[in-house]
Design a protein that fits this description.
With about 90 residues, this protein is an alpha+beta fold. The chain has 3 helices and 3 strands, in the order αβααββ. A 3-stranded antiparallel β-sheet has the order 1-3-2. It starts with 16 loop residues before the first helix and ends in a 15-residue tail after the last strand. About 15% of the residues are buried.
Length: about 90
């Protein structure tokens, strides 16, 4: 657990390149103010479907992403962020 006790500690050095790539893709897509759908992620990431699905599953399992439903399609967003999706605005402001 981290110092807040609500999320397990994740050593970012333990992430594979593809994990980081998919996470950053989702964070970029989320800038629109909505969770990124699996279809949007696939279009941008241009990864093999199996690799993408395995990566999304692993990032959710590790509690780095939260999965929800967006009109019948899986959607994903970062589980915890120390940054804001709004430019020039710190988180929580």
């Amino acid at each position: 657990m981290n110092s807040r006790g609500d999320r397990p500690y994740v050593d970012s050095q333990s992430l594979r390149d593809v994990d980081t790539y998919v996470y950053e893709t989702i964070a970029t897509l989320e800038y629109t103010g909505r969770p990124a759908t699996r279809g949007q992620i696939a279009a941008v990431a241009d990864l093999d479907d199996q690799v993408l699905d395995e990566t999304l599953t692993e990032l959710v399992r590790r509690q780095l992403l939260v999965q929800s439903d967006a009109g019948g399609q899986p959607a994903f967003e970062p589980a915890d962020r120390g940054w804001s999706t709004v430019p020039e605005q710190a988180q929580g402001m």
